[in-house]
Amino acid sequence: MPAPLAAPPGPQGPGQPPHPAPEPRQWLARYGHELYRYALARVAGADAAEELVQATLLRALQALGNFRGEASERTWLFAILKRQILDYYRRQARRPEVSLAELAPEGPTEADFFEEANGHWRAAQAPTSWQTADGALEQAELQAALHRCQARLPARHGAVFALRFVEELPAEEICRALSLSAANYWVIIHRAKLQLRRCLEQHGLGRRA
């Protein structure tokens, strides 16, 4: 008589974590590069990204006793990194502001782009459609230029822009995290877009009719 088929494994018992315990000695080898690339896409410069990864691993070590196995080790580390990035943006937002004139003293100012009476675009400066980047090379060039331009934004502008368009946080959460009023938030978003567009056009990535 053939042996009976083995029963499928039953559900885990109550209180048993679904994921194995973390292995701190393996974190850097397993996740270091991935964490670094994630941070680098969100902050200005390799040094800042490396510091964020180091802070993430240190914080994970300090919080090792809080790991409950409800998420994978990788997911847990990335959650810590995201909190570190948010703290980074908070610090950036507290830095002294730089005016548009200081950012480009010999270039056009905000008054050159908008009507003083109503804040609308001046006819000669109104943005037109951009050329579409076709192919992997063009997309890579666009991403590299955007990252360089984002790094040139004033600290608070860069923090707000990244939280909204990179981290995709809602406006209310950004205002709460950075202690901004709604009106101040929208002014910053407006100015950050203007500065980024100007910078990208200087890189030859925009066109005017």
Entry keywords:
Arc Repressor Mutant, subunit A, disordered N terminus, mainly alpha, 2 domains, 209 residues, Rna Polymerase Sigma Factor, Chain: A
Question: Can you put this structure into words, describing what you see?
Answer:
Helix content is 56%, strand content 0%. It is mainly α and 209 residues long. The chain folds into two domains: 24-94, Rna Polymerase Sigma Factor, Chain: A, CATH 1.10.1740; 109-115 and 137-208, Winged helix-like DNA-binding domain superfamily/Winged helix DNA-binding domain (Arc Repressor Mutant, subunit A, Orthogonal Bundle), CATH 1.10.10. Helix 1 packs across helix 2, helix 3 (73-93) packs antiparallel against helix 7 (155-165) and helix 7 crosses helix 9 (182-202).
Using the alpha-carbon principal axes, give the shape.
globular
- Separation of the first and last Cα atoms: 84 Å
Helix content: 55-70%
CATH superfamily of the largest domain: Winged helix-like DNA-binding domain superfamily/Winged helix DNA-binding domain
CATH architectural type of the largest domain: Orthogonal Bundle
CATH class of the largest domain: Mainly Alpha
Number of helices: 9
Radius of gyration: 23 Å
Question: What share of residues are in beta strands?
Answer: under 5%
SSE layout and pairing:
Elements: H1 27-40, H2 46-62, H3 73-93, H4 100-103, H5 110-113, H6 135-151, H7 155-165, H8 171-178, H9 182-202
